[in-house]
Design goal:
With about 525 residues, the chain is an alpha/beta fold. The protein is built from 15 helices and 25 strands.
Length: about 525
C-alpha cells in the first residue's frame, strides 16, 4: 500500500496524489499546474502511465484540482471519476472552459509562430477531450459510503470551500491490514455565504492536508458585505460604474449573495434598483448551476430562502450578458451600474474590455475580490500602476482601485489548526501539501510543535509505504522552465518597465538637477545590463 505525491508538493497548484492498494491505482485529484513556470516533463502530462490508473477521486471542481482530467483521458485513462453531484455539474463546464482556453492559446501562438517560422504546438487538450472525460463522472453525496472495488471504501464530506467541495476519507485494505486516509481537499473558511462550514473529521491513520493560508489570518474587522455596500454607495453617488473582476465560479456567486442582501436591507441609499450585470458566459452557467443543485449543499440561511422559493443569488435589477453584442452594450449604456466579469486577475476575457472603458474615469471604481498573481494586469493595478496597456492602447488609471478583504474561500491559520485539532485519534503521519513558497515546510513544523504529530512536507514524486509508515522513495524539486509565454518574473519586469515610463513622464516640470540625477541613474542601469 503506497502513496506518491505528483502535484501540490511544496507548491500551491496541481494537486495530484497516487494511492496504490490491492493491485489498483487510484488518483486523488488531477489538477492543472497554474502559473508561468512548469516542470520539465509536463509536455507528457504525467510522471505515471495514465492507462494504468483505475479510478480517480475528485475533491472539487477548481482547475488546480481537476484541470488535467481531460489530459488523463487523452493519455488513455478510461476508469470512473467519483465526486459529488454539485462538483460533477460545475466541473464539466469548467473543464470545457479550460479546454477552450487551451485551444485558443495554441491557435494564437501558432498564428504568431507561423509568421516567424517557429514550431507549431498542440493544445494540452481539446473540448472533445473535456466532453469525453465528463462521461466518466460518477456522482456521490456527502456521507455516502462507496466501495469502487474490494479493498477500498470512499466517503465524501463537506469541506466548505466551494459548492460540492469535499474532504475524502479512504479506507484502504491490503494483506489483512486497513488504513484510513483523509485527504482534506481545500478546507473552507468559516461563515462564508451560501456554504456550510467545513465538516471536522475524527479518525485517520494518515492525513493529507492543504496549507494555502497557513501563514496568515483573515481580516474580519468589517464584514465583506458591509464593505461592499459602502463601495457601491460611494461609486454610485459619484455617478460611476463599479467594475468587479471576479472568478467565475464561487466568488461571483458570493458577490451576488452579498448584493442581494444589500438590496434587501437597503444598505445603499438613493439608488433604488441599481443595475447589476454578470458578463461572463462561464459565470452565467455556474450561477445557473448554483440555482439547480440540491439544497443539501447550502448553509441554513440559504436553505431557508430556498424553502420559501427565493433564489439566494437572484434579485431585481440583475441581468446577464452572454453574447458579444450583450457584452458590448454594457459600455454603450451610461447608467451607473455594477459590472461583474471574468477573469479575476484581468488576464483574459471580457473584463479587459470593461477596464478599457472605465479605468480612465475618475468617477468609477475597480474592486478586486481575490488574489492577484505577480505579472498580471490585476497585480499591476492593485500595486498602483498609473497607466496600463490594454488591447494595444495606453489607458490612464484615474478610477479608484480597491480590494475587498474577508472574502477568501480558504481557511486561514486558525481554521487549519481547528480542522486538524478535531481528530480524536493520533494520525501516524500528516502530509502537508498545497502551499506556496515555504508554507508547507513551516506548517509541517508547526504541526509537529503544536500537536506532536509526525508531519512532513513531501517533495515531488516522494513515495511512502503506508503499512510500515516509511518513505521508500525520495522526492525532488523538478527543474522549472518557462512556458512559451513570458514567465512570471519577466512579466513583472515588463510591468515595472511600464511604471518607469510613467515616472519619466512625471519628471516634466521638475528641476534640471533632479532630472539630470535621475538620468544618470538610468544611464548606470543601461551600462550595467547592456
Amino acid at each position: 500500500m503506497f502513496l506518491t505525491f505528483y502535484g501540490a508538493a511544496r507548491e500551491v497548484t496541481g494537486s495530484c496524489f497516487l494511492l496504490e492498494v490491492s493491485g489498483k491505482k487510484v488518483l486523488i485529484d488531477c489538477g492543472l499546474r497554474q502559473g508561468a513556470d512548469v516542470f520539465d516533463g509536463d509536455d507528457d502530462g504525467f510522471s505515471f502511465n495514465a492507462e494504468e490508473i483505475d479510478l480517480v477521486l475528485l475533491t472539487h471542481a477548481h482547475i488546480d484540482h481537476s484541470g488535467r482530467l481531460p489530459l488523463l483521458y487523452k493519455k488513455g485513462f478510461r476508469g470512473e471519476i467519483l465526486m459529488t453531484s454539485a462538483t460533477r455539474a460545475l466541473c464539466r463546464i469548467m473543464l470545457l472552459d479550460s479546454a477552450h482556453i487551451q485551444e485558443s492559446d495554441a491557435e494564437y501562438k501558432n498564428r504568431k509562430g507561423k509568421r516567424s517560422g517557429e514550431f507549431q504546438i498542440e493544445p494540452l487538450y481539446t473540448t472533445e477531450d473535456a466532453e469525453k472525460v465528463a462521461r466518466h463522472f460518477v456522482a456521490s453525496e456527502y456521507g455516502e459510503k462507496i466501495t469502487p472495488f474490494e479493498g477500498l471504501t470512499v466517503t465524501f464530506t463537506d469541506a466548505g470551500h466551494l459548492l460540492g467541495s469535499s474532504s475524502v476519507t479512504v479506507e484502504a485494505s491490503e494483506g489483512g491490514q486497513t488504513k484510513k486516509l483523509v485527504f482534506s481537499g481545500d478546507i473552507g473558511n468559516s461563515d462564508q455565504p451560501l456554504l456550510n462550514d467545513p465538516v471536522y473529521l475524527k479518525e485517520a491513520d494518515y492525513v493529507v492536508m492543504e496549507s494555502t493560508y497557513a501563514d496568515r489570518l483573515h481580516d474580519k474587522n468589517e464584514s465583506a458585505e458591509d464593505a461592499l455596500a459602502s463601495i457601491i454607495q460611494s461609486t454610485l453617488d459619484a455617478g460611476g460604474n463599479l467594475v468587479i473582476p471576479s472568478f467565475a465560479v464561487g466568488r461571483t456567486q458570493e458577490i451576488l449573495y452579498f448584493i442581494r442582501n444589500i438590496k434587501k436591507y437597503g444598505k445603499v441609499k438613493g439608488h433604488n434598483g441599481f443595475p447589476v450585470v454578470v458578463d461572463s458566459p462561464l459565470a452565467v452557467d455556474a450561477t445557473n448551476i448554483f440555482g439547480e443543485v440540491s439544497d443539501r449543499y447550502y448553509d441554513e440561511e440559504a436553505r431557508a430562502l430556498l424553502a420559501q422559493g427565493i433564489n439566494p443569488i437572484g434579485f431585481e435589477g440583475l441581468s446577464v450578458a452572454v453574447t458579444t453584442e450583450e457584452s458590448r452594450a454594457i459600455n454603450e449604456d451610461d447608467t451607473p451600474k455594477i459590472v461583474i466579469s471574468a477573469s479575476g486577475m484581468c488576464e483574459a476575457g471580457r473584463i479587459r474590455h470593461h477596464l478599457k472603458h472605465n479605468l480612465w474615469k475618475k468617477e468609477c471604481t475597480v474592486l478586486f475580490v481575490g488574489y492577484q498573481a505577480i505579472g498580471t494586469l490585476g497585480h499591476a493595478l492593485v500595486n498602483g500602476a498609473k497607466r496600463v496597456r490594454i488591447f494595444g492602447e495606453d489607458i490612464l488609471v484615474n478610477a479608484r482601485i480597491l480590494s475587498l478583504g474577508s472574502t477568501s474561500s480558504h481557511a486561514d491559520r486558525v481554521g487549519l489548526m481547528r480542522w486538524l485539532d478535531s481528530f480524536d485519534t493520533r494520525p501516524e503521519r500528516v502530509f502537508v501539501v498545497h502551499g506556496g513558497g515555504d508554507n508547507t515546510e513551516k506548517w509541517a513544523d508547526d504541526v509537529r510543535k503544536q500537536f506532536g504529530y509526525n508531519a512532513v512536507a513531501p517533495l515531488f514524486a516522494e513515495k511512502y509505504d503506508l503499512i510500515s509508515n516509511e518513505r521508500i522513495k525520495e522526492g525532488y524539486v523538478p527543474e522549472k522552465r518557462s512556458r512559451l509565454t513570458p514567465n512570471t518574473v519577466y512579466k513583472y519586469l515588463l510591468e515595472s518597465g511600464g511604471r518607469i515610463g510613467e515616472l519619466i513622464q512625471n519628471f516634466s516640470g521638475r528641476t534640471n538637477s533632479e532630472t539630470k540625477r535621475f538620468t544618470r541613474e538610468l544611464d548606470e542601469l543601461f551600462k550595467k545590463y547592456s
